[in-house]
UniProtKB/TrEMBL annotation:
Lineage, top ranks: Bacteria, Bacillati, Bacillota, Bacilli, Bacillales
Superkingdom of source: Bacteria
Protein name: VanZ family protein
UniProt keyword annotations, A-Z: Membrane, Transmembrane, Transmembrane helix
Residue ranges of the TM segments: 6-25, 82-101, 107-124
Length: 145
């Protein structure tokens, strides 16, 4: 249980690094700088650039990063709803924190992050939902043949 918590916290640190670092894709020149005067209006900017490769890679990173975070949280906490609420809250907070680190948080990134969380949540919920009684009966009838 401790190692699951450790992995989850480490993954959260990775997400914060990629969220708040000025240039997260260049590790040698990457840095965290804080500003007391963020431009919060950028959060509402709707500047989609799906044909730009780095933009697309970034959005795939948002989705998969928070899907993995939800997986780790669910394994650690063993509570689907609580872990999903924490993961979505963390996604929102990381986007709101970006302007304080000379980055541009975006509302649509919050949505993409949340879609990653919800994808794992719904998959895990479906996987863990017990079969209904009539489904059990139907399965047993097929076994008898």
């Amino acid at each position: 249980m401790l190692s699951r918590g450790f992995l989850t916290v480490m993954w959260a640190i990775v997400l914060v690094y990629f969220t708040c670092s000025i240039n997260p894709f260049h590790f040698r020149i990457s840095e965290l700088r804080f500003t007391g005067h963020p431009n919060l209006e950028l959060i509402l900017r709707f500047d989609l650039h799906p044909l730009r490769p780095m933009w697309t890679i970034s959005k795939i990173g948002h989705y998969s990063g928070f899907l993995i975070f939800e997986y780790l949280l669910t394994r650690w906490l063993r509570h689907r709803r609580l872990s999903a609420a924490i993961a979505i809250s963390f996604a929102i907070l990381t986007e709101l924190a970006q302007p304080f680190f000379f980055r541009d948080g975006r509302l649509y990134d919050m949505v993409i992050d949340s879609l990653g969380v919800l994808t794992f949540y719904l998959w895990y919920r479906r996987k863990r939902t017990p079969l209904r009684r009539k489904d059990h009966i139907r399965l047993n009838m097929h076994k008898g043949r």
